[in-house]
Every structure is written in C-alpha cells, then in structure tokens.
Amino acid sequence: MMLTRLIVLLSGLVFSMLGFAQNNSGIDIKIKALKNQVNSTEDIWVKITLHNRSGETQKILKWYLPDAEGNIEDDIFSINRDGEAVMYLGRHYKRPAATDADYLELPDNKKITYTAELSSVYDFSTAGQYQIEFSAHNFALVTKNQNRGNAPDFSASLKSQNQTYILLTQARKGKPCNPRKEDCGGNGGGEDVSFTGSCSNSEQNAVLSALAAAKLMANDSVSYLNGSTGSRYTTWFGEYASSRWSKVGSNFDAIKDALDNKPKTFDCSCNQNYFAYVYPSQPYTVYLCRVFWQVPTTGTDSKAGTIIHEISHFNVVAGTDDIVYGQSGAKALAESNPSDAIKNADSHEYFAENTPSLD
After folding, report:
1. What are the residue boundaries of the Lysine-specific metallo-endopeptidase domain, all occurrences included (predicted)?
2. Which of 33, 100, 97, 102 is nearest to 64 (CA)?
3. Is the model's pLDDT at 14 over the cut of 70?
4. Catalytic annotation on 105?
5. In what order do the strands lie in the sheet containing 45-52?
6. What is the distance between the alpha carbons of residues 32 and 247, in angstroms, rounded to a whole number?
7. What is the distance between the alpha carbons of residues 26 and 175, in angstroms, rounded to a whole number?
8. What pLDDT is stored for residue 36 in this prediction?
9. Burial class (CB in 10 A: 0-12, 13-18, 19+), 158
10. Taking the mean position of all CA atoms in its chain, how far away is CA 165?
C-alpha cells in the first residue's frame, strides 16, 4: 500500500524522545460498506480491516480507531458526496501526549477488523453518491521498532488502499446546521456564560477565572500579531510567510471575538482522561474533562490555554485540527511543516500561553 511519506526535520533535542523518521507503516487497510444503498432512516456503517504486513509488531493510537460499539473519537474518514467534501460533525479533543496505554499492539501478519457508524458524525443529510476512505493523521499515529534498542519509528498517516461507495437514496430530515452559512449558536451575540453537566460552584468559579485569563491571552496574541514577527511566532508557526502570518492573525481575531462576544456554554459532565472536547459545528459549547481540573489556570497546558485550544476548533472561529499534541510536537511541526502548524490547535494554544515567554 502506498502511504503518505512524512519527513520530519529534527533540530537539537526536539523530538529526540519521539524519533520521527521518514517511514511507511506497512499496514494495509481496506474499507467496505456494510450496505451500498441506504435510505434516509438507516444508519451508515462501514467495515475497516487493518493487516500488519510490516514484518514486525506495530502500535496504533487507539484514538484513531473505532471502539467496540462503532463510535469514533476523531475525523478519521475522508468522505465526498458527488465530488464535494462532506463535513465532519463529531468531537475534537485536547488530549495529553500519548502513552503506551493509548496504543493498540498489532503483531506482524495479524489482522484486526472494526465497524464504524458514520451518519452520526458526518453530514449525510443530502441524497447522493458518497465516496468514503479511511484517512487518519497524527504525528505519532503508528510506532514500531520499540524492541530494537533504538528510538521508535513513527508514521503520521494511515490511508485505506481503496474507497467504498454508498448511495443515499433520500435526503434526511433534520439537516445539520452548516456553520459556514449560518449561525449555529442559536443565541445570537452577547457575553453570557452558562453551565451544564452539574458544574459545582468551585468548578464554575475555576472556569470563569480561566475564561478571564483566556481573554487576556487572546488580546495579547492579537496585539503581537498586529506588530512584527519574532521568535514567539516562528517557534509555534514556523518561518515567516505573509499568507500564513495573515491566517494566524485572522484566527486569533476570531478567537478573541468568540471569547469576548459569543454566548459560551461549559459542560462539566465528561469523565474521560482528556482536557476537553468540542463539536466543531456546534459553537460555543466546550465539554471539560478530568485533566482540565488538574492543571493551573495559566501556564503551559493550562485551563485558559485549553479554552483557547477548544474555541479555535469551531468551524465558525478558526476550524483548527489536532495534528500533533504537546510542545515538542508543536515545535517540530512548525519547523517541518508551517502550513500544518497554522492549522494545529495546540500551536495556537502554546502561542497564546507563551510559556516560557518568547519575543
């Protein structure tokens, strides 16, 4: 199978722990629709089979695989309807850096099969022919060579060798809100903050303090980006190019506007060992998870920074993705691929947090 080759440029000790290398995973992936024709009342399911042909055991991040019930936690499919890209409506998380427990071990020449339900997390509201492929991306998506006494190799992309096709014969009722064309917040403007998910008084106070700090960070970021570039920008977004500088500036303008002027809802019901998550097409609700309550209000990977990270995910704000997590990963991404760095949520968070302080 032909996989996208990613060249990561190493600088000093950056990513010495990760040991990224130019590398193909050796994992063959095939996808198949469980039904090739569905009506408006049926769920849309696909089967994905991963076959390790690399000659050694591989480890795959579980975040980018369906769970036992067919649920997915991230945008891991590329879907087109009659040639037009289909919007992902599911969650975007801020996660801690991956540990061994976050990987699935797949021995050499072994297969594993998953089924995934797609119609709950992608926009299948319009009748037509849908082309679907598995397409997952993360800098530490697949790792091997763990037992050779060397730094492990990583692959950043996994794609299926084939596409599968589904004909949706009827438009679905209850078309999802399209945030590129309408206000999906439903509440207009304003500075209101509301809480759901049984937030305690202390949790509400912690969120309000973090929100105030996030507004200061956003204001500072906008002021910086109205000036001249320096190491703060290049560390997190790479070498200067006017188009990328302009894009980052517009992203932070939108983040600042959302923090200052939009009605935000914070939900405290998440029990997962993550920082937080959002549905990018459903502004401006942020779901706060366990790690959020364990970190300080400001500083690296802080409560305030997490709010900026999550706000940036909304399609009506900056539409960022989670290409890599952690400061080391974000720095390496800025050096190797600035075009991806300006799309990465953690890169925006670390620029805003600015710890340690850079000029």
Report:
1. 223-353
2. 102
3. no
4. no
5. 27-33, 45-52, 111-117
6. 38
7. 39
8. 96
9. buried
10. 25
**Tokens at residue 347, please?**
């890169």
Per-residue pLDDT band at 153 (split at 50, 70, 90): low
Comparing C-alpha atoms, which of 51, 41, 42, 121 is closest to residue 79?
121
Number of helices (H), then strands (E), in the chain: 8, 16
Residues whose CB is less than 8 angstroms from the CB of residue 261 and which lie 6 or more positions away in sequence, other chains included: 189, 190, 191
Provide the percentage of residues in the chain whose pLDDT is more than 90: 69
**Is-contact 62 74, C-beta < 8 A?**
no
d(CA 7, CA 336): 8
Q: What is the DSSP letter of 88?
A: B
Q: If residue 169 lies in a helix (H) or strand (E), which one and from where to where?
A: none
Q: Quick one: tokens of 54?
A: 């690399």
Asked whether 258 and 314 are in contact (CB, 8 A), the reply is: yes
Average pLDDT score over residue span 302-318:
98
Lowest-confidence region among 11-15, 62-66, 87-91: 11-15
3-state secondary structure of 151: coil
Q: Coil, strand, or helix at residue 2?
A: coil
- Which of these is catalytic: 84, 133, 203, 310? 310
pLDDT at 108 over 90: yes
Reported confidence tier of residue 272, pLDDT bands at 50, 70, 90 = very high
Given this model, what pLDDT does residue 160 score? 95
Secondary structure class of 27 (helix, strand, coil): strand
What is the distance between the alpha carbons of residues 35 and 243, in angstroms, rounded to a whole number?
A: 44
